[in-house]
Structure formats: C-alpha cells, structure tokens
Amino acid sequence: MKIAIIGAGVAGLTAAYHLSALEHQVVLYEASGQTGGLASGFRDARWEWALERFYHHWFTSDDAIIDLIRQLGQEDKLFFRRPITSIWYKGRIYPFDSYVRAMLFPHLSIIDKLRAAPVALYLRLLRDWPRLERYTAHEWLTRWMGRRGYQILWEPLLVGKFGEYYQEVNMAWFWARIHKRSPRLGYFVGGFQAFLDVLTERVRKQGAEIRLHTPWNVSKQKRFPQRLVSSPTAC
Ligand SMILES: Cc1cc2nc3c(=O)[nH]c(=O)nc-3n(C[C@H](O)[C@H](O)[C@H](O)COP(=O)(O)OP(=O)(O)OC[C@H]3O[C@@H](n4cnc5c(N)ncnc54)[C@H](O)[C@@H]3O)c2cc1C
User: Fold this and answer.
1) Fewer Cβ atoms within 10 Å of its own Cβ: the N or the C terminal residue of the chain?
2) Counted domains in the chain
C-alpha cells in the first residue's frame, strides 16, 4: 500500500518503522525541520548530548518503547537511575519518593494525608482504567483526595504541564502516570534526540521517505510545500 503519515513525532516514526518493515510504501510529512516532535531535542556542536525541549524519561514498565529500543538493537544505550523525587513548596524542597516521606510532609493535615495515600494506592492497583475516562483529573482528584491535598500535590503539576487546559485533562491519563510509574527512570545515552535519530535513520533505511518542512493541510486535504522556520518552543 501507499501510506502517508502526517507528523514525524514518536508516533509517526514508529508507525513508519512498522509499516515500512512490512514493505509498504511510506511517506512521512513533517511540518518542522526535524523529526521527533515533542520528544525532540537540540544540540550545540560542542555538546556531547542533546538537550531536550521538554524533560522526558521512561518507566521500567514502558514495555512498548523498551521493546522498540531492543528491536533497534540499542538496549545497551538504555539506562535506568533512581532519582530523588521531591516537592517544592513555599520556597523549600521536601523529599517525596516514599509513602513514609510523604507522610512527613508538614503542609498537609493527617486527614489530607489519610485521603491522599489510599487514592494513590487505588490508582496504583486499579487495572480497569476505562472507567476513569468519564472524569477529568481535576474533578476526580478534588473529589477523592479533597481540595487541599489536590491543590498542593497535583494541581501545580497539571498546570505546569498543560497550562490553561489543565482542568480538561482526562483522569485515565493521570491514572497511567501513577499506575505505570517506577522508582527508577529510564534515559538514552546521548539524550532522547539520539534515540530519535536512530529511529529516523532506521525508518529511512527501510525505504520510508521523510519530507521535512512539509506541513499537511488536513482541512483542505492538500499539501502546502512552504518552508517553516522551527523554533524550540514551536515544537
Ligand atoms: C513537558 C512534557 C513532558 C513529557 N514527558 C514525558 C515523559 O517523561 N515520558 C513520556 O513517555 N512522554 C512524555 N511526554 C509525552 C511525549 O512527549 C508525547 O507523548 C510524544 O512525544 C507524542 O508524540 P506524537 O508523535 O504523538 O506527537 P508529537 O510529538 O506532537 O508529534 C507530532 C508531529 O507532527 C507534526 N505536525 C503537526 N501537524 C502537522 C501537519 N499538519 N503536517 C505535518 N506535520 C505536522 C509536528 O511538527 C510534530 O513533529 C511529555 C510531554 C511534554 C509536553
């Protein structure tokens, strides 16, 4: 088949990888000047590693991407470290990477903590995530954790990540962040951009064509071959 993929982010590249492996004729249309989308990085010629536009990590439970890294023969570049996870509140840093440390956090009452802990445990154990799709994270967490616990622990993170849209984020997405989270976090030698470069190269090697600076106008079903100037924030 002749297949057009719009966007050479991780999803588009992975689709192109699998489809071109099956010998389909694949063309990827990418609006910006590089592949990788949100997960991409940038690099000065003097730097050994690329810096990411947005900080990323993998969990030890992220089986699909770990399997992809293996298929690409790059498992020796994947490594996991255990970072110290802390919370920044009112000008101070509090370690927050265990239930005991969370219980010692002084800015929540015992009641708030007794509500927050079972919620985290419930999300960790729950497998039937589709039932959460009916709620936003904002409404579900406020309801079950209580307003104060939610406002101190989770709301700032949702705002930091989603800005003005934070109240629209689906609870199933939030569930995945808790359910899949592992104490050790995974990185790729050279940064995420190095992984994306390997994936891009393999996709090209398998015969797929990647057209950079080529936005696809979905509404008109017509390709505009004008060139775009990309900036770190535009991606
Ligand atoms: C702050 C932040 C932190 C994150 N942290 C993590 C993390 O730790 N771990 C993790 O696994 N994930 C994380 N993510 C999520 C991860 O970045 C995304 O899930 C993933 O990069 C999405 O890939 P994608 O291919 O679906 O979309 P995108 O990366 O958005 O790629 C879409 C591509 O399509 C192109 N495009 C768009 N419209 C057109 C068009 N009309 N024509 C042609 N091209 C077009 C864009 O230029 C872009 O390159 C994070 C995201 C953010 C923002």
Assistant:
1) N
2) 2
